[in-house]
Amino acid sequence: MNRALVAFAISVLSGSLSAQESPTTAKAVQVRIIQGPKIELAKEHLTIINWTTNNPGGSPVHYGIVHYGRDPKSLIETAKSPIRLNPDHSSTVFRVRLDNLEPQTTYYYTVDSMEATGKSDGVKSSVNHFTTP
Amino acid sequence: MDRRMLAIVAVVVVCVLALLMALAKRKVSPRSGPALSDSVYNPYPPGILPPDLNSEIDRVQREMEVIEGRALARWHGLQPPILKGQPPVLMNVGTEATETLGELMLFDKNISPNRNEACASCHMPYVGFGGPIPSVNLTIIAFPGSVHTRAGKRTPQRHPYSPFFPVLQYNQVQGLFFGGNFFDSRATGYLLRIPDAEQAQGPPVDTQEMGLPDTACIAFRLSQAVYRPLFEEVWGKGSFEINFPHETEQICATPGGAAVFGGSTTPIPLSAADRTRANTVYDRWAQSIDAYEQSAQVSAFSSKFDAFLAGKYKLTPEEMAGFKLFDGKGNCNSCHLDGRGTTLKSNQTDTSSAAMVNPLFTCFGSANEGLPLNPRDSFYYQTTPDAYGFTANPYGFGYRDLGLGTFLRSGFGSGPNPNMSWKQYAPTVDGQMQVSSARDVAMTPPQCPSTDAPGPYFQKGFFHNGYIKSLKQLVHFYNTRDKYAYPVTSGHCPKGTTEKVDCWPMPEVRNNIDMTSGNLGLTDKEENDIVSFLQTLSDGFTRPYLNSDTFTGACMRGGSAATQGNELLIPTPTLPPCAAVVCGVAPVPNPSIP
Predict the structure, then answer these.
(1) How far apart are the first and last CA of chain B?
(2) Angle at B449 between CA B447 and CA B451, to 5 degrees
(3) B356 → chain A, closest CA residue
(4) DSSP H or E segment with residue B276
(5) Closest CA in chain A for residue B340
(6) Which of A114, B153, B249, B462 is most solvent-facing, going by the fewest CB within 10 Å?
(7) Contact between B404 and B184 (Cβ < 8 Å)
């Protein structure tokens, strides 16, 4: 039995199995939006915006962030939702919930994402808009 | 406090206890605690408690006695352990002796005031050590304690593989919590360094579970156990050299939280040295149970999936399709790690060649999946003092289960947080519950081979609040939670919709909802395939799962997995604001919780 196998056996028998924690994967050189952002769901009480990027890597939990407001030059509101990266998926879908928006109102927004530590992925979309039902 | 003062206090305690017991005799059965009849305290409106509760509790007790008898026989068949070497080790049989001791403890109903509740009362092997009473899983979801009119607030968490969870830590690099035990991770492992062991120290003194009033009661009852010689062989002859005062039996026969204790958690008057010895026994209790739970009897790695990894089982087409969906379109293994690489190509097929040994199907993390508030949860109804002057939940429906967030705040319904530097993160984890291992989620008794209707099936409750009643519903929830979201509470879905089919009530806690799933786009068949895959994770395929043959209750039949349990939905009452004791503790939830 080689040393590596012995070390692994010890790790298993000791119950540590630390390799099964979500790994911190290598950060992508650049995080790019591949698809979206778009309105996935627009109900009276709930709006969901989603977009897809290449897998950003880094912290296993990321936050999708939506900066929004009624004035395209003043996106003063922020909504963010966590997602968990699948480290071996080539792309990542971010989905963000916006609860209880005003009905029949046009909102402008941009999207971004960050690691759970708060470190930005450095991606920004152009300003888009939607109107609530 | 000097000895004379101690003696005075002891006399007062005895007198008060005697008075209380004399009063209680009129309405409390001395052996089994308050029975569930109209003549005693019962805070539940009609229709909340399952009608077969008493007979089902009795059934589980009989089953536990069978398993305890088997464990005793195994102990008597063991060679006496012999200490050898330096440091001394119980050579040859030390492992089996320790694990058997833990098993004897887990099934010992004497570890409760009324000698009627063991750990196993809520964790039986034939359901992967989950809740063993189908009607409870279908209704109040939390299991009755030693005082049967008390119950907790969450479903019993399956404990196979829980010994593998690391000590709770905040990973600064990842900005995340990992590890611990319990849905809210409050068994951190900070002291024993084994969260699973610290978990085993919770229920025996939980007021709504086994309910002993003092941790020293565990040492006291163990000192009377038939398996005491095994304890002393494993942990040392002098383990029970504790001078218990004569009133100890009466104190330990009185449920925790009783008004007579005046809020004390150490009502047994022990010297400092004896208190330390009793604490040591309680640590040994915890370590022994951890040994059993980590043993091959419990964390068995004996499923179809393990056989598949070893090349000794070929997954059926449905199971394989479910496996690919689990890793791919369903994205289940982003949290329930299965050790496979999933570099997906356009057809979303697992292209990796190596599997991790013994994948645990958890990331040791926590998540808020956005479950609706379950108005059948027994906790909401325990709002008035019981026969012992104890009130489990004075806030009724003002209670919200913030999970890990409440624990970090040392808040109501959780336990004290031993690390003050964690408290600041509470708003980032409000609503989060531990990601349980998916292993054994589908385990049922052999005669009821499914969790899902039409069966024959064994009724389980899934997630922390048991809102979900079948694996089909579980997968459908992940798949469509957002697609069929409605701004209603459970029991109030709009006309023309069916709850859990095309209507999901709003989440109990809106903060930090995990958006990895919620609109996966799975077809009906794809949902069923994932259920088929989950069924491959049940232990007992490559070798028998010990004591899985002990279920003597009835299977359920008929109906549809999609609407399983819907006949017992009740309308959620108008919810009062979240109680300040939950949502008003700094750092407060952000945004605020209604």
Answers:
(1) 47
(2) 125
(3) A20
(4) helix B272-294
(5) A88
(6) B249
(7) yes
CA distance B477 to B518: 7
Run of H or E residues at B99? helix B94-106
Please give the structure tokens belonging to residue B370. Answer: 């956005």
Which residue ranges make up each domain of chain A? 24-131
Is the minimum CB–CB distance between B35 and chain A shorter than 8 Å? Answer: no
| Res B350: pLDDT | 52
Collect all residues of chain A within an 8 Å Cβ-Cβ radius of residue B360.
17, 20
Q: Per-residue pLDDT averaged across B86-90, rounded?
A: 96
The 10 Å CB-count burial string (b at 16+, else e) for B283-319 is: bbbbbbbbbbbbbebbbbbbbbbbbbbeeebebeebb
Whether the CB-CB separation of B417 and B185 falls below 8 Å is answered with no
A133 in contact with B at a CB cutoff of 8 Å?
no
Q: Are B206 and B199 spatial neighbours (Cβ–Cβ below 8 Å)?
A: no
| B 105-164 near A (Cβ less than 8 A) | 163-164
Note whether A117 contacts B173, CB cutoff 8 Å: yes
What is the per-residue pLDDT across B230-274, written as a single tens digit (0 to 9) for each?
A: 999 999 999 999 999 999 999 999 999 999 999 999 999 999 999
What are the structure tokens assigned to B119, written together? Answer: 């750990």
**pLDDT at B5 > cutoff 70:** no
User: Options 3.40.50.11270, 3.20.20.70, 1.10.760.10, 3.30.43.10; which CATH number does B3-294 get?
Assistant: 1.10.760.10
Predicted pLDDT at B98: 98
Total Cβ atoms within 10 A of residue B171: 18
Q: DSSP state, B121?
A: G
Q: pLDDT (tens digit, 9 = 90+) per residue, B128-138?
A: 999 999 999 99
- Give the span between the Cα atoms of B158 and B139, in whole angstroms: 18
- For B384-395, the pLDDT digits (tens) are 999 999 999 999
Could you please report the per-residue DSSP string of B443-463? ---TTS-BSSTTSSB----BS
The pTM score is: 0.91
Say yes or no: A13 contacts chain B, CB-CB below 8 A: no
With beta carbons under 8 A apart, name residues in chain A contacting B331: 86, 89
Would you list the domain boundaries of chain B? 3-294
Question: Are B333 and B327 in contact, with CB atoms under 8 Å apart?
Answer: yes
**Element of type H or E holding B11:** helix B3-24
User: In the CATH hierarchy, which fold is given to the domain comprising A24-131?
Assistant: Immunoglobulin-like (2.60.40)
Q: Average pLDDT over chain B, rounded to whole?
A: 92
Can you tell me whether residue B3 is helix, strand or coil?
helix
- Note the pLDDT tens digit of each residue in B282-322: 999 999 999 999 999 999 999 999 999 999 999 999 999 99
| Residue B340 near residue B327, CB atoms below 8 Å | yes
- From the number of C-beta atoms within 10 Å of its C-beta (0-12, 13-18, 19+), residue B588 rates as middle
Element (H, E) at B281: helix B272-294
In sequence order, the β-bridge partners of residue A92 are: A53
Secondary structure element (H or E) that encloses residue B67, with its range: helix B53-76
Contacts of B550 (CB under 8 A, 6+ apart): B63, B66, B67, B124, B125, B126
Contact A78, A133 (CB under 8 A): no
